Each structure stands twice: as C-alpha cells, then as structure tokens.
C-alpha cells in the first residue's frame, strides 16, 4: 500500500511540474508575470509533500491492513489526484472565485479522506493501540478541515484571502507530525 501510494504521489508531482511553462521572454521581468503560476505550484507541491510525509509516518505504525483500509487509501489518493487539475485551473484563472473555492473543497476532501483512513486503521488496531494513543484528539486535523471550509467560503468574498488561509493551514503541517515520530522512535529504542 505504501509503495503504491508513493508512486501515485510521485506521478501527481510530475504532472504538476509538467504544467509549468518556460517564461515567455529572457528577462527577469518575464519571471514576474509567471510568479503566480509558480507560487500555485509551490503551494500544491507542499500540500502533496505534507500528505506524503504524514501518510508515510502513519503507515509506519500499521502492522496490517484490510480491504476497508485499502479502499480508504484509494479514496485519499483520488482526492489528492485532483490537486494538479485544480492547480492548473487556478493558474489559468488566477484569483477568481470558482478555482479558489474548488481548491479549498479538494483540500477539505483530502483532509476528510485522510481522517477516514486514520480512523479505519485505529479501528482495526484498537482504541488502545499505540497509534490511537499517539494521535489523541487530533486537533490539528480538525483545525485544518475548518480552515479549508472557511477558505472555500471566503473565496466568494476575496479569493486572495482564501489562498492566504490555505498557506496558513499548510504552515501548520510543514513539520511532520512529531507525535507519530516520537512514538516510532521511542518504540525502536
């Protein structure tokens, strides 16, 4: 499951980078006109990276999977696979309402799918499992979902503000979940 997921995520990043175009001219001012597209790529790359690192850490705490977990993982990969398309749409129509809103809805659904996967793993391993104890109430995950929902709604008022919220939520996750890292490394000692 982990190897398959890694491959799918690598393809997503490859698709996104292939969408980047060479600047139209040979001066630094040409880079300036393409800056919003590049920043959109950076934000989406970071989000896919966040999911990859947290997914990797999550699976390090999994001993066994069942069919439900496999399907939940595919559900997560489905929503993540929409990030390159929504990024390309936002690049084509910068700072417009619909792409900014849809980007947030996709991030919200990625978050929901990740929590479903996480909960199914905990259900299989039991509420007393190391993973369940490590994750606790998962406030960061809940705050993220609220942030995505708020940002998707804010897109109808000011799309740049919605992207600012997406950046803030990404900043919450830039550092991999230290709760899981601590549990993994303390178990190895």
Structure explained in plain terms:
The chain is an all-alpha fold and 189 residues long. The chain has one domain. It has 10 helices and no strands. Helix 1 (2-19) packs antiparallel against helix 3, helix 3 runs antiparallel to helix 5 and helix 3 (35-60) packs parallel to helix 9 (159-173). It starts with a helix and ends with a helix.
Q: SSE order, as H and E?
A: HHHHHHHHHH
Number of strand elements? 0
Number of helices: 10
> Percentage of helical residues?
over 70%
| Content-based structural category | mainly alpha
Total individual domains: 1
Q: Which strand-content bin applies to the residues?
A: under 5%
The low-confidence parts are none
Rg from alpha-carbon coordinates: 18 Å
- Shape field: elongated
Task: Note the gap between the termini.
Answer: 26 Å
Largest sheet: none
Mean pLDDT: 90
Catalytic activity: K(+)(in) = K(+)(out)
Transmembrane segments: 35-53, 65-90, 102-124, 145-175
Protein name: TMEM175 family protein
GO molecular function, one term: potassium channel activity
